[in-house]
Write a structure and sequence with these properties.
Length: 152
């Protein structure tokens, strides 16, 4: 079972040592793939480790983009209202819709939860188990009818 944090730390250290020793990112990726698989029981493609070593060699750091900073440092992004741009057809312009992903074409109304039909089905199921020749069958049905009249 792979442990991600020690595995990641090991990869970073080995890439740093390999680059210091003058190895190419390709050879580092090949060697690290075998070592990580043996030590951490994790399968990482060699090209992933090769790209990571190439980024480290160029001192690029990570492949995750850094957030943009405002031109005015006093400007606070959280306090700005969300601006949504709508084109002349009444549709959202690309990249301006709030929230992730595409909006659903048809929004379904949310119905309140009710368990009444499930309970009624269970009651009918249980009442149907009373044998037809049971002498108290009619009295049981009448008791249920009376209960329904009282509670409805």
């Amino acid at each position: 079972m792979a442990h991600p944090e020690p595995c990641q730390l090991y990869i970073e250290q080995q890439i740093k040592e390999g680059l210091a020793a003058g190895k190419t990112p390709y050879s580092i990726g090949k060697e690290l793939t075998a070592m990580v698989e043996r030590l951490f029981e994790a399968s990482i493609p060699h090209d992933t480790l090769e790209r990571r070593a190439a980024r480290a060699k160029k001192k690029l750091g990570t492949n995750v983009p850094t957030p943009s900073t405002p031109s005015n440092p006093s400007e606070n992004h959280e306090k700005r209202p969300n601006q949504v741009l709508i084109n002349d057809k009444g549709k959202f312009q690309a990249g301006t819709a709030p929230g992730p992903g595409r909006r659903p074409k048809h929004e379904k109304p949310i119905e309140p939860y009710s368990c009444a039909m499930q309970m009624a089905t269970i009651a009918i199921s249980q009442l149907s188990r009373i044998p037809k020749d049971d002498p108290k069958r009619e009295k049981a049905f009448q008791t249920v009818i009376d209960w329904i009249k009282e509670n409805s």
